[in-house]
User: Fold this.
Amino acid sequence: MSQRRLTSNLANVTEASRWSYTFFERACIISSQSQNRMRQKGNLLERTLIIVKPDAVQRGLTGEIIRRFEARGLKIIGMKLMQVDRALAERHYDVHRERPFFPSLVEYIISAPVVVMALEGTDAIAAARATIGATKPSEAAPGSIRGDYGLEIGRNLAHGSDSVENGKLEAANFFNAAELCGGWARDVDRWVFE
Ligand code: IDP
Ligand code: MG
Assistant:
């Protein structure tokens, strides 16, 4: 590739990233209006971290799992495919450090790529956990992700934060600020949030 063509390609990339930055920045500014509207109505805006676990990615269920959260109305504010390293896995599951299944849980979560998502919405913690289903797939309700696609507790497809506090902490563990677009203004928001 000629030097001139390379320079012009680089200029295009820079222009494209400037455009997308401006776009997201503007979207985020508009978004604070919709967040305010939700708070004014007395609804609680929550953030949850979802992990599409290695078994779900390997089984080609990533799209189906994302679809369920999207269709529910939860807003995706961050999403990426990544390989979790041991340190992050141990931090994420620190509360289970003393449990006998901790070593196998860490091995499972670092064994293959995962898709992580930060979602926002009214009662996002409870809504996402209901969509995921009970920890033990054999006890999970049909219609939930684990109830529809899982059999064993050690291959239970998805993670969802269990409290408002952990939702914020876990999202911050997996995403840096530049990767999140909190509360961007989605056109259908007024048809999802009262
Ligand atoms: P949760 O994912 O439904 O919030 P937790 O009790 O927080 O369930 O457990 C975290 C993860 O640890 C589970 O999703 C599952 O992958 C694994 N796990 C929990 N209990 C067991 C067990 O008894 N044996 C093997 N793995 C377990
Ligand atoms: Mg948990």
Summary: The chain has a mean pLDDT of 86. Strands lie at 45-52, 75-82, 114-122, 158-160. The radius of gyration is 19 Å. The chain is about 50% helix and 15% strand.
